[in-house]
């Protein structure tokens, strides 16, 4: 019995020694017991895995020995920001709402973790898709018809529809126009007969009707910039510019160059657009208006071009 007791006691001391060695190895491990967790995720730097800085902060010093021993500092309040967890050593500059000709005011101030948001001053609006306005333009005034929906800073004023013209007045206008046209046509035919043959008139003056799209490639848009800009208006001109992949900065600069004067802004934007399109400008404009179902404006522009063509026929060099 004594021999058996000594046998089991030897096994007990052997197991105790092994346990002591294992415990000592774990205690000597410098990484044992550490639970390093990065709340906002990690990034790699010089082969090391480092913790990302939280929103509103930037990296002051990258980590070296462990993911958590890097240093982050806050962005400068009111001047710079970071909206997402990041590994950047700089913050982004806050947007300014104080441009002298942009008609802006601060809607939400810039914080270390959020950019500023700009809105329009009273009496101005913008239709920006970015959530923050870059430049605002004057709201329309409905002096003759009255306001249907007021301008609210993100959409323009909607005016009441103008009073319709009576049926008798319309009939009188139509008859008068037809009489004037008949007199003009008669006088034109007599004059043309004295200067050139009817065949020449048909071949030159009605070439536009049979070869419309081909002819438009030969039309120079420059003499018609002001008239076409007036027909289009600023909103449709911006639509055409964006469909043609023009930069928002180019569009905004046209507004800033002519504060509170949308007509001049439209002319300048149309001119820049036409310089890109070249001799195909008029044709491209007609096709884009047709595709966007702006039939009325398309027809008015075509009529403008046709009238100038007829004037060339009536006044040959």
TrEMBL record:
SUPFAM superfamilies: DEATH domain, TNF receptor-like. TNFR-Cys repeats lie at residues 74-118, 119-159. GO terms for cellular component: CD95 death-inducing signaling complex; external side of plasma membrane; membrane raft. Residues 240-305 form the Death domain. The keyword Repeat applies. The chain crosses the membrane at residues 170-192. It is a single-pass type I membrane protein. GO terms for biological process: activation-induced cell death of T cells; extrinsic apoptotic signaling pathway in absence of ligand; immune response; motor neuron apoptotic process; necroptotic signaling pathway; negative regulation of apoptotic process; regulation of stress-activated MAPK cascade. Residues 74-118, 119-159 form the TNFR-Cys domain. The keyword Transmembrane helix applies. It is found in: Cell membrane; Membrane raft. Residues 1-25 form the signal peptide. Keywords: Apoptosis, Calmodulin-binding, Cell membrane, Disulfide bond, Glycoprotein, Lipoprotein, Membrane, Palmitate, Repeat, Signal, Transmembrane, Transmembrane helix. One of its GO terms (molecular function) is calmodulin binding. This is Tumor necrosis factor receptor superfamily member 6. It comes from Oryzias sinensis (Chinese medaka). The lineage of its organism: Eukaryota, Metazoa, Chordata, Craniata, Vertebrata.
């Amino acid at each position: 019995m004594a021999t058996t007791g000594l046998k089991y006691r030897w096994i007990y001391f052997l197991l105790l020694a092994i346990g002591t060695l294992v415990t000592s190895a774990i205690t000597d491990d410098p990484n044992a017991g550490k639970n390093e967790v990065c709340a906002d995720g990690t990034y790699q730097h010089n082969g090391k895995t480092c913790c990302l800085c939280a929103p509103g902060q930037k990296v002051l010093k990258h980590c070296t020995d462990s993911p958590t021993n890097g240093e982050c500092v806050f962005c400068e309040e009111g001047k710079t920001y970071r909206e997402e967890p990041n590994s950047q050593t700089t913050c982004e500059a806050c947007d300014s709402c104080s441009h002298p000709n942009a008609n802006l005011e601060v809607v939400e101030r810039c914080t270390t973790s959020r950019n500023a948001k700009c809105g329009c001053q009273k009496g101005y609006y913008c239709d920006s898709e970015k959530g923050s306005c870059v430049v605002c333009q004057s709201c329309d005034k409905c002096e003759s018809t009255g306001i249907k929906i007021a301008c609210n800073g993100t959409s323009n004023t909607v005016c009441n529809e103008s009073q319709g013209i009576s049926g008798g007045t319309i009939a009188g206008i139509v008859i008068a126009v037809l009489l004037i046209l008949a007199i003009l046509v008669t006088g034109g035919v007599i004059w043309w007969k004295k200067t050139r043959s009817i065949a020449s008139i048909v071949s030159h003056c009605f070439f536009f009707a049979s070869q419309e799209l081909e002819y438009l490639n030969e039309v120079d848009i420059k003499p018609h910039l002001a008239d076409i800009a007036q027909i289009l208006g600023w909103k449709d001109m911006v639509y055409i510019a964006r469909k043609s992949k023009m930069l928002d900065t180019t569009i905004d600069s046209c507004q800033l160059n002519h504060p509170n004067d949308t007509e001049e802004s439209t002319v300048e934007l149309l001119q820049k657009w036409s310089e890109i399109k070249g001799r195909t400008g008029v044709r491209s404009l007609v096709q884009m208006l047709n595709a966007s179902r702006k039939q009325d404006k398309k027809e008015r522009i075509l009529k403008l071009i046709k009238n100038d063509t007829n004037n060339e026929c009536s006044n040959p060099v």
